[in-house]
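re: ur msg from earlier - yeah i can do the NDP complex, just paste it... oh wait u already did. ok heres what im feeding in:
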Amino acid sequence: MTAQPIDGNALAAKLRAHMATEVAALAAQGHTPGLTVLLVGEDPASQVYVRNKVKACEAIGMASRLERHPADMSEAALLARIQELNADPSVHGILVQLPLPKHLNADLVIETIAPEKDVDGFHIASAGALMVGQPGFKPCTPYGCMKMLEDIGCNPRGKHAVVIGRSNIVGKPMALLLLQASATVTICHSATPNLAELARQADILVAAVGRPRFVTADMVKPGAVVLDVGINRLPDGKLCGDVDFDAVKDVAGWITPVPGGVGPMTITMLLQNTLEAAQRRAST
Ligand code: NDP
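and the outut:
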């Protein structure tokens, strides 16, 4: 079998075009959705990420602002700036780019963002809402994975989903979203024995490990949907996922490539969360 590719770029473009019309409708009522991105320091990868986020906002008509702060910004100053943004009605979403310089307590910084503006979905209130199935912001990468399943007509209900990875930003929320969608979910991590055997039972297999080509063809059930979250830089500079794409595509039913799979969906769902934040505010 040769798997069908799940084209993240195409789905992202479709969703963003739809969002642009909703943004225009909100703007016409005086509620242009606004995202403020805070970058502290000069981490080169972070600079690229924040630029892409701001550009993506602008492309669909959102108001976006990038604030650059020096690497030695004090924690008190950063928290005070976030409080100001919390109180600013033109700002619907606040994103603090991670990682932060070591002297800043990332947990405290994230908890200072008002939950109704936590468009990254990393605040404890967002995590709690996801845990108990209440409305809140879903972390963008797993939210994007769920959109991909929906787009290919894969309803997780009654399926066995195996998530490899248990981070707070990908693995755990991914597992919770799949559970919410009535999948039976297995979460694997570095202390899981028989990981390959568990992975082989998956109708939906999500790899969020951070190890190039970790998932090999013998770990995949024929016909499974394989979502590859991993983004790894190889010594030759090329990007590579956590799944051995060339071998797994002959076993899986559906598979996301890297690049061009889950990656473009992450920023798309950041836009979606910002739009939802503005819609909620407009309706209050
Ligand atoms: P983390 O490093 O926070 O988590 C990795 C997880 O993988 C951990 O739970 C770890 O287990 C598990 N793991 C590591 N090695 C093994 C192993 N040998 N066997 C089983 N489990 C293992 O990474 P993230 O969740 O933040 O990211 C995962 C990948 O996704 C990375 O490549 C990252 O770059 C990418 N990513 C991509 C995004 C996108 O937009 N496409 C967004 C975010 C991340 P344990 O907890 O036991 O240590």
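cool cool. Residues 140-263 form a domain with the Rossmann fold fold (CATH 3.40.50.720). ping me if u need the other ligands too
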